[in-house]
Design brief:
The protein is α+β, with helices and mostly antiparallel strands. It has a domain at 221-297. Helix content is 54%, strand content 7%. Strands 1-7-10-6-5-4 form a six-stranded mixed β-sheet, with helices on both faces. A hairpin with a 5-residue loop joins strand 5 (436-441) and strand 6 (447-456). The longest helix is centred in the middle third of the chain and has 32 residues, at 335-366. It is globular.
Length: 723
């Protein structure tokens, strides 16, 4: 789930990956590792100049928290002066001296900001985290100063207004249009008084969102559920028990097991822990982070204030709501199409969910529970349903998904589709010993980019999985500059002497993140602002949701799923069990996803004076969808947390569009061969390589030859084949 910008767009995506590889060449020496507790800074700020490392990757081993603000201040000062010089230039405004020059002016600001957000997400360093608000405030102020500078906008408008008469390439036209649009969306044409109001709103939003993210992260981290009786853990997967024991020691407990509110701990606990009252306790702690009456009511209040300020910003810029502000320029511009799709999916999902919940209730009654199912029961009995129907426990399925093999499988699919190869480069600087670095080459052996992989959980790491872009692909004169990307995850570390084992869902997640990485790596545009995942929000998840379709396809599974003890390839019975497991609760999962979308719309599709509080919005959505009390609006992706996070720039409704595209595109492969090199090459040339160098709707048309068809997504839901 990426985030981008033309001038000050940070790219912190939610995504992950892995690989099949050779050993590092013996001539390489081990790369330096950043030491988070080392407070001795290098004499020269490593962020101040071009990186002198192999492939010019960030010198992670030399960067310390105290480097960021001075380097950022200096870069902002230089960029501000450069933008003033562009604005006051006596020569006639052209693409090169205005649009391209403006993009180059903020290169260092973007480089430092990307490095800061990338490291802050993987570091436990409180000093680094404390800098998030001042960094966000500086970036917001710089953005507003540049984009509301009238003489600068006048030159941009001059180039834009003469587009048809200028001899520009299609990509130059696209960058001009995007630059002009960014100025307009930042209030360049507003009266001076309204510009000042908009600046205050943007700066307040930046501060509120950083406070929200920091406090949400703290509220999630602070809660712990301690188990001291080992008998209660007998039904839990070994990997979860080991993670809980490690969490207990990391938190200073000399005995027992600790479960937390982080997704990698919470959901496995809810699926497997037998004591209903304990499941209720941890679930309610997770829920109450956002309840107004709880001790974390500041999060509920922050979420309301963020929604109100987003609505005020939209009104100032002439939009009826924040949703309309988000939809402007996206593929989801037709509100009627979106509403029709939501209603059709809801009808199909309700039918399936009704039958699935009956199955769960029967299992609960067999356990002596006559009362209605509660939200903390839904996960537990869904897992019991899987075990009953499929005759496989999670631990059995994990045995086939060795982390290294899954990584190899993802890399192998990329190799078979596009001829890519992934070469370990142990001489590159890394931020932690767990981090791997790869040089990626195309089928002719040409350098494509650098990929970091930091896949295992450790204390202090942001929860979830994502892809960060440390350097977007672009051209320097006529030489292609390869991107530097990082895939980060929180898979359970292996116990000593054993491999790390993934669940099938985690294997799919790894392929998903590989899709984001491929979008970054295969980019081939001239301008960094248009590269890779710098696309509209409803297009950014499309390549990732598409690539994950290969993860559990039978012919792909048989290429990487080997039992960690016997080495035997995955059997047909297990493959069929995996396919069947996707159908068991697909209606429930889609209905919760749709509830998250409707909640987003309820909070953000309104004027600033009508923003409901979170509880009222959830109640209205529950009534509209007929959402059973056992289900929640908050379980898809990051739930409420993502609705108010700046770097989660797409709403769930936009992810729905990306799902529609992914199922439509994968249908093209399924109609022939999953490894169709000609079709894959068309996908690369028309989608992945293009980035935002042309409107994504045109890229889709060039790839598929028609408009997107929602029938493929509807068929998936109605057949119960998963979303």
């Amino acid at each position: 789930m990426p985030v981008n910008c033309s001038f000050i767009r940070l790219v912190v995506t939610a995504s992950l990956i892995l690989t099949a590889c050779e050993q590092s060449p013996p001539s390489e020496t081990p790369g330096p590792v950043r030491k988070p507790n080392d407070t001795v800074a290098t004499p020269q700020n490593p962020l101040d100049s071009r990186y002198l490392t192999p492939f010019e990757t960030p010198p992670f081993h030399e960067i310390h928290p105290e480097h960021f603000l001075p380097a950022l201040d200096e870069a902002i000062s230089a960029a501000t002066e450069a933008s003033k010089s562009i604005a006051s230039a006596p020569s006639k405004a052209t693409f090169d001296n205005t649009i391209a020059a403006l993009e180059r002016a903020s290169d260092d600001v973007n480089r430092i900001a990307r490095t800061f957000y990338g490291l802050a997400a993987v570091s436990p360093d409180p000093q680094l985290h404390s800098m998030a608000e001042p960094v966000a405030a500086r970036l917001a102020a710089f953005r507003n100063a540049v984009l509301q500078h009238k003489p600068l906008f006048d030159r941009v408008a001059t180039v834009h207004d003469q587009l048809q008469s200028r001899d520009l390439t299609p990509e130059q036209r696209r960058l001009t249009e995007r630059t002009h649009r960014q100025f307009l969306r930042s209030g360049a044409r507003l009266p001076t008084e309204d510009q000042a109001r908009l600046r205050r709103i943007e700066e307040e939003l930046a501060e509120l969102i950083e406070r929200f993210e920091r406090q949400r992260r703290q509220a999630t981290h602070d809660h712990e559920f301690i188990v001291e009786n080992p008998e209660l853990l007998e039904t839990l997967p070994n990997a979860l028990v080991q993670l809980a024991q490690r969490s207990a020691r990391d938190r200073g407990h000399t005995k027992g097991w600790v479960f937390t509110l982080h997704a990698h701990s919470l959901y496995p606990f809810l699926r497997h822990y037998p004591e209903r009252s304990d499941r209720r306790q941890i679930y309610q702690a997770w829920l109450e982070r956002f309840n107004a009456e709880s001790q974390n009511s500041r999060l509920a209040e922050l979420s309301r204030r963020i929604a109100e300020k987003r609505a005020r910003r939209a009104e100032l810029l002439g939009y009826s709501s924040h949703i309309d502000y988000e939809l402007d320029g996206s593929m989801t511009s037709d509100r009627r199409m979106l509403r029709s799709l939501l209603d059709r999916l809801a009808e199909a999902a309700r039918k399936r969910a009704r039958d699935e919940l009956l199955e769960l209730r029967q299992l609960a009654r067999a356990d002596g529970i006559e009362a209605p199912l509660e939200p903390w029961d839904r996960w537990y009995y869904a897992e019991r349903l899987r075990e009953r129907e499929l005759s496989f426990r999670e631990a059995d399925l994990r045995s086939w998904f060795v982390y290294d093999n899954v990584r190899e499988g993802a890399f192998s699919v990329a190799n078979r589709l596009w001829g890519l190869s992934f070469h370990p480069r142990s001489n590159l600087p890394v931020w932690h010993l767990d981090t791997e670095a790869f040089e990626v080459e195309d089928e002719r052996g040409n350098h494509l980019g650098v990929l970091y992989v930091d896949a295992l959980h450790r204390p202090g790491k942001q929860a979830g999985a994502w892809t960060s872009t440390y350097r977007p692909q672009h051209y320097d004169d006529n030489e292609r500059v390869g991107p530097v990307a990082a895939i980060v995850g929180n898979f359970t570390p292996a116990p000593p002497g054993l491999p790390s084992l993934l669940t099938p869902d985690e294997a799919r997640m790894l392929f998903h993140e590989m899709g984001h990485a491929l979008h970054v790596l295969l980019s081939d545009v001239r301008h960094a602002s248009l590269a890779g995942t710098s696309v509209p929000a409803d297009f950014v998840e499309f390549p990732a949701l598409l690539f994950e379709q290969w993860a559990l396809a039978p012919e792909i599974l048989r290429g990487y799923a080997y039992h960690h003890e016997t080495g035997s390839v995955i059997g047909d019975d297990v493959v069929e069990a995996l396919r069947a497991s996707e159908r068991l609760t697909s209606g429930i999962e889609m209905l919760e996803f749709l509830a998250a979308i409707e909640l987003d719309l309820m909070l953000h599709d309104t004027d600033s004076g009508s923003v409901p509080d979170l509880a009222a919005a959830e109640a209205a959505v529950r009534e509209r969808l007929g959402l059973p009390e056992v289900l929640s609006h908050r379980h898809y992706a990051g739930g409420v947390a993502d609705l108010f996070a700046e770097r989660q720039r797409s709403g769930d409704f936009q992810t729905l569009v990306a799902r529609m595209l992914a199922h439509d595109a994968f249908a093209a492969f399924k109609s022939g061969s999953l490894i169709d090199r000609n079709l894959a090459e068309r996908l690369r040339q028309e989608i992945l390589a293009r980035g935002n160098a042309r409107p994504p709707a045109e890229s889709w048309q060039a790839f598929r030859g028609r408009s997107p068809d929602p029938a493929y997504l509807l068929d998936v839901i109605e057949s119960g084949a998963g979303g």
